[in-house]
Every structure is written in structure tokens, then in C-alpha cells.
Amino acid sequence: MTNLALQKIVYFCHVWSLIGLRRPLIRHKFEAWEFGPVLPYLYREFKSFDRSPIKGRATEIDPQNGSKRIVSYSFGVETEKQLQEIVAFYSQMRPSDLVELSHVRGGPWHSTWNHGGNVNPGMKIDDSLIAAFYSKVSSPFSIQ
């Protein structure tokens, strides 16, 4: 999986968590970048792979000793089940298709990117825009 595909799949995991579980998956806001929604910290973590498949895990600094360690995570059963369905669905798509899906006219990225002003780094995509738009869209998989 490339960084581009990862960004879009994580975005759709967040989208469907807002809709299906009625809570955000990620506390940070996605930003509207040229190729769609991006979490800057996730982008920076894997940017060294450029367009090549990611061949490593996300790391963080261990506050006890200052060394790098693999990021750990834990999700509840309901969230884990939903994430498996979402990742299984979207990971079958080409990155260009994921970009196209995230760029849909009138969608959250499109509305933020085409806001009528200058395009600036750091344009945040509000979760309320995501929820309002995707609550009107049929889920491509079971989210209940």
C-alpha cells in the first residue's frame, strides 16, 4: 500500500466511523490537499516511501527512554469489525480510484478545496461536513 492509498483508506475509515458508529475514529482533522484528504502526521511518517509500497510500521518516541518504538493501537470489538470491512473494501481499489472517490463533487474535500478563496496549506475538513455529506450516501458495505 502506498502513502496515497493509506491516506484515503484511513479517511474512509474515519468517514464510516462518523456515520456507522456516530463517533470520530481520529481526533485530528484531515486537511484538504491536492490529491484529497490527508492527515499530515501520517503523511510525514511514510513520506520516505514516496510512491512505493510502505514497507514499515508507524513509530513513535518512547517517553521513558527516547527511543523509537512501533505505535500500538487498540480498538473495541465494534470498531475493529467495522475497520476490517472498510479496509477490505477500499484496499481493493487503485489509488487513483480512491482519489476520485474522495474528490466527489460537493463532498467534504471538494467543498473545502474549492471554497472560493486561496488554496492554503492546513485547510481543515470539518467532521460536520463529512457526516452531513456521507450520511446521505449508501454505504458500500454493511456498517450495522
Textual characterization of the structure:
The chain is mainly α and 144 residues long. It is built from 6 helices and 5 strands; from the N terminus they run αββαββαααβα. The radius of gyration is 16 Å and the shape is globular. The protein starts with a helix and ends in a 10-residue tail after the last helix. 22% of the residues are buried.
Broad shape: globular
Order of helices and strands: HEEHEEHHHEH
How much of the residues is beta strand, in percent?
5-15%
The residue ranges in which pLDDT falls below 50 over 5 or more consecutive positions are: none
Distance between the termini: 27 Å
Let me know the number of strands: 5
Mean pLDDT: 91
Main pleated sheet: 3 strands, antiparallel
Tally of contiguous helical segments: 6
Q: What gyration radius follows from the Cα positions, in whole Å? A: 16 Å
Neighbour order of strands in the largest sheet: 2-1-5
Portion of residues within helices: 40-55%
Question: Would you tell me the structural class of the helices and strands?
Answer: mainly alpha
The quaternary organization reads as: single chain
